[in-house]
Amino acid sequence: MTNSAGDQRARARLDSVEIKRARDGTCRVEVKLTGPEGIQGEGTIRCHDTPPALTRAGAQATIRALTSLNSLDDSRIRLSLTGVKSLRAFDARVVIVAVRARMNERRDDLLGAVEAPSGDLCRGGVIATLNAVNRLLSKEMSPADQEEAAGRHR
User: Fewest CB atoms within 10 A around its CB: which of 20, 58, 68, 105?
Assistant: First the structure.
């Protein structure tokens, strides 16, 4: 995966989102991702078959799938979902996701948003989560660049 400048970017790509509904009003959301270097990740969450529950389940399954990937030079990033909200904006459904990422001593609060594709709130939760986390994964800074950036914010 390269950008227009030709440098490598550590991003996760969505392969599939599957919702398996049960007769008892519950469902299973399964998200499959491909990470850098073709590594596969999968996350599954069970939930009630309601729009808010499916939105949250899509985001949580994505966090699980991302956690199963070994990305960003084998550094461990701990991700936790801090909030999921869908709302009506103009004539569309928008999903907003907040994710907390921790790596070593660093903590980032990430935000992702997307118009739910064809009103599919579950897929919207997945894509909004990827939008948030991929911003962090695609930041490739050398240690010198990180020190310089930290010096500017002191």
Answer: 105
| CA neighbor of 19 nearest in space, from 101, 94, 100, 120 | 120
Domains parsed from the chain with CATH numbers = 13-152 (3.30.160.270)
Residues 122 and 120: their CA atoms lie apart, in Å, by 6
Spatial distance between the Cα atoms of 64 and 32, rounded to a whole number of angstroms: 10
Whole-angstrom Cα distance, residue 64 to residue 69?
9
**What span, in angstroms and rounded, lies between the C-alpha atoms of 54 and 24?**
15
Q: Mean of the pLDDT values across residues 99-118?
A: 92
pLDDT of residue 153: 38
**Rounded-to-integer distance, Cα 110 and Cα 15, Å:** 22
pLDDT digits (tens, 9 = 90+) for 30-59: 999 998 778 899 999 999 999 999 999 999
